[in-house]
Amino acid sequence: MSAPEAPRLRLGSKAPNFKATTTKGEIDFHEYIGDGWVILFSHPDDFTPVCTTELGAFAKLEGEFTKRNVKLIGLSANSLQSHEEWIKDIDEVAGSSLSFPIIADADRQISYLYDMLDYQDVTNRDGKGLPLTIRSVFIIDPKKTIRLILTYPASTGRNTQEVLRVIDSLQATDKYKVATPINWVPGDDVVVAASVSNADADKLFPGYRAVKPYLRLTTLPAEKVLPQ
């Protein structure tokens, strides 16, 4: 199967819309996003070990994402019936209760649309000769704008806490005129945005610390970031 030309998806691109069959029924992706955030993440195959652990971990953290107005939606290149049987295994292994939808993308139409395919590993194909999906993560905001793209090889599982941390960073930096430094977690100091003049910084962040003229730190309490 030759792949059609995939759209160039970059940070700031509008997330392509699509209609899909999922374990929770038919969806229109933009309608599913609504006025909240969404995390779309793909998996190479059903009934595979790493994917099973990942979906279980996301399911157990779903409540934390919900508090942040974030919906989860998975994708795997298999049929709806396969997904429904697989969810039983996921919940058994992880002790979870998976409730977010998983897209059935056996024909790879959405995988091509979001460029979720591994073209380097020619052996990474299913029984029909179609390429399997890799571990892609897209964080999309309420304006349907792609804010983060992560891509992992099939052999490496993702870190759910890192995905949650990025959501906290994106939402905090959207609300306040700051950026988050290396290894930031809610409650740590943040960087005053470069676009903020020193005069404005004095008003917005009284007592900020200028480590260098271009590196100004200020306190942002966790309660201003995390949902209460």
Automatic annotation (TrEMBL):
Active site: C51 (cysteine sulfenic acid (-soh) intermediate)
One GO cellular component term: cytosol
GO biological process: one example: cell redox homeostasis
InterPro entries the UniProt entry points to: AhpC/TSA, Peroxiredoxin_AhpC-typ, Peroxiredoxin_C, PRX_1cys, Thioredoxin-like_sf, Thioredoxin_domain
Domain of life the protein comes from: Eukaryota
GO molecular function: peroxiredoxin activity
Coiled-coil spans in chain: none
Pfam families: 1-cysPrx_C (PF10417), AhpC-TSA (PF00578)
Residue stretches making up the Thioredoxin domain: 9-172
Keywords: Antioxidant, Oxidoreductase, Peroxidase, Redox-active center
Function per UniProt: Thiol-specific peroxidase that catalyzes the reduction of hydrogen peroxide and organic hydroperoxides to water and alcohols, respectively.
Family: Belongs to the peroxiredoxin family. Prx6 subfamily.
UniProt protein name: Thioredoxin domain-containing protein
Organism: Lipomyces starkeyi NRRL Y-11557
